Amino acid sequence: MSRRSIQKFFNKYVRNTQKNTRVSSFKIELTPTVILSTRALKHVYDKRPAQEFDFFIKNLQKIITNPDQVYLNKSGKRGNLCLIKIKNNEPYLCLLENISHTSHSTKEVVTFFRSNWTYIRDYELLWERKDGNLHRNELLRIEQFTPQ
Q1: C-beta separation of 113 from 52 below 8 A
Q2: What is the pLDDT of residues 20-78, one digit of tens each?
Q3: By the number of CB atoms within 10 A of the CB, which of 12, 39, 86, 94 ranks highest?
Q4: Which long-range contacts (C-beta less than 8 Å, at least 24 apart) are formed by 77-81?
């Protein structure tokens, strides 16, 4: 999945829709185990500043396949995993939720947003990039992670 594909998906189903209106329900596969829905895109499009939204449209694929940190989300909050990409020392979060009704382990993007380090200070760190790129075995372990 390329950045252009995400942009086309957004342009076709979400762009220029009025705030707080419903959009048709469609999903796009970002990786073999992660999907993005028009609902999540619309939510972020309505709630986040344009600059922040544009950053995510351009970098969502990179955040999912090559995060800098992975946290376990707090119980009671939507989404199980919190993937973080750090830019200018600010955390950009992408929350993924396990979808239990599928035959294989699939996660759906719930939301994405820029935050601050205080927001995640009490989260449980599962993985952090030390040096270099994320090894494919680590990515597979993260993608297969299913919290209890």
Answers
A1: yes
A2: 999 999 999 998 889 999 999 999 999 999 989 999 999 998 899 889 999 998 888 88
A3: 94
A4: 78/110, 78/111, 79/110, 79/111, 80/107, 80/145, 80/146, 80/147, 81/107, 81/126, 81/142, 81/145, 81/147
